Amino acid sequence: MTLITRLRSILNSLTVALMLLLVVAYMSPIVPIISNWLTGQWQEPKGDVLIVLGADELGDGTIGIASYWRSVYAVRAYRAGGFQRIVISGGEHGNPESASVARAMADFIVALGVPREAIWMEEHSQSTRENALFTATLIRDWPGKKVLLTSDCHMRRAHGAFSRVGIDTIPAPVPDIGKRWNSWLSRWDCIWTVAGELVKFAYYMARGWI
After folding, report:
1. Which of 34, 64, 81, 207 has its CA 20 to 30 A from that of 199?
2. Is residue 147 part of a domain?
3. What is the CATH number of the domain that holds 160?
């Protein structure tokens, strides 16, 4: 068997194995199980300071779907949880002429009825690590309970990142994978989202950031 033939055989075997793995992930409950682990323990979002992490932003500066749902759940939490302040964390994503994710989300949240004077923004972070570092600088001396709101599969990493910089938070995950997995058309995206989050979680652990 020539080297090229051997390499082709190995490549074919790896392709088949990957396809089988994807089929198993698509049909079995393994992705929701992993997502539930990434979510971790959580409580009802009641406290004094609500910390909302930004997510995606479209090219024209408007919020993407993940940022939209985090904003919607932030408004619901604000109305029900007795919060005095909302802190939104997230810088601009690739277009320096557009508003930051935090500002775009703040505008949307205000449009849904939250007073602008109740909202603080952290507009420089480009990662979960920076969300924690820069937000900690802003709120470290603020009194009261702090609640952290982000997407479900992002919560364990985000909560750990805030703990690492000395900010104790109560997790309040937004049901993202938990809802989208019920749609067969959304499952492929859920698989890649959860797989990517596992890689990021492992990287943060290796760096000592969680």
Report:
1. 64
2. yes
3. 3.40.50.620
Considering its fold, how many domains does the chain have in total? Answer: 1
Q: Residue 109 pLDDT more than 90?
A: yes
CA distance 78 to 105: 14
Q: Is residue 136 part of a domain?
A: yes
CB crowding 163-201: b at 16 or more within 10 Å, else e: ebbebebbbbbbebbbebbeeeeebeebbebbeebbebb
Q: What is the pLDDT of residues 1-56, one digit of tens each?
A: 576 777 666 676 666 555 555 555 555 688 899 999 999 987 778 899 999 999 99
Domain membership of residue 4 (yes or no) is: no
pLDDT given for residue 75 in this prediction: 96
| 103 belongs to a structural domain | yes
Record the pTM: 0.87
DSSP notation for the chain: --HHHHHHHHHHHHHHHHHHHHHHHHHSSHHHHHHHHHH-------SSEEEEE---B-TTS-B-HHHHHHHHHHHHHHHHH--SEEEEE----S-TTSPPHHHHHHHHHHHTT--GGGEEEE----SHHHHHHHHHHHHTT--S-EEEEEEGGGHHHHHHHHHHTT---EEEEE-SHHHHTTSGGGHHHHHHHHHHHHHHHHHHHHHT--
Query: Domain residues for 156?
Result: 42-177+185-207
For 125-148, write each residue's pLDDT tens digit.
999 999 999 999 999 999 999 999
